[in-house]
Amino acid sequence: MPVAPIRRRWKTVALAASAALVGLSVPALTASPAGAATTAYDDTYYADATGKTGPALKNSLHSIIRNQTKLSYSAVWDALKVTDQDPNNSNNVILLYSGISRSKSLNGGAMGDWNREHVWAKSHGNFGTSIGPGTDLHHLRPEDVRVNSIRDNKDFDNGGSSFIDSGGSLTDSNSFEPRDAVKGDVARMILYMAVRYEGTDGWPDLEPNDSVTNGSAPYHGRLSVLKQWHEQDPPSAFEERRNDVIYNSYQHNRNPFIDHPEWVEEIW
């Protein structure tokens, strides 16, 4: 039975001898590289990925996270009510792009409802809502029906204009920029999909690129901007809890870029 993680962040530590300690030797401390993370899963779940970089790391992570329990598309409704629960109101979910807290009971397709947003647009690779990438909770989030329609299947990039209930998100003719508080979340969801779906299990080989005109091709952009967002918006407590809930209660796989943000640069 999976256990809740105990996460520790290590930062570089420097020691200086004070005048009061003249003549005393202070043992040197060796710290992990800045930004590195350790988790309770490093010696078990991520054991095969330890010490790897580049394509070898990506391949190892793919082998690890592809072992998941798959949900039906209808089951996603109830799962999102748990994974995206408002920490301040257990009756509500937080909508991804708008940041609005909305009643869990208002899920559906009408105006004022929230529905299931595919962060990796389901037309990018034409996987639709079939069990697999179309029902993967690691990139499915609650969003207002109208806002979801505005995002449509656009690639992600900086710039654009605001809109009603945007929460700070912007859009233009060919791209979408999420609000600042979830920019990193969006980046890590896209990169998770690129590692999870490598064309080895009947689904397209999903990859990030630097385009905003990907259409139905199995690509999502813009990678350079997504990497910036990942750096600017580190994993939040909400995002980490979500990763744990998906692992413990639903799919039993994890988004490695939430646990180990430094792996983004190691791969891309």
Automatic annotation (TrEMBL):
User: Does this UniProt record's set of keywords contain Ubl conjugation?
Assistant: no
Highest taxon of the source? Bacteria
Has UniProt tagged this entry with the keyword Metal-binding? no
Q: Which UniProt keywords apply?
A: Endonuclease, Hydrolase, Nuclease, Signal
- Stretch forming the signal peptide: 1-36
Spell out the InterPro entries in the cross-references: Endonuclease-I (IPR007346), His-Me_finger_sf (IPR044925)
Q: Which GO terms describe its molecular function?
A: endonuclease activity
Q: Which Pfam families match?
A: Endonuclease_1
Q: Which SUPFAM superfamilies match?
A: His-Me finger endonucleases
What PANTHER family does the record tag this protein with? Answer: ENDONUCLEASE-1 (PTHR33607)
Its name, as the record gives it, is Endonuclease
Q: Tell me the organism.
A: Streptomyces sannanensis
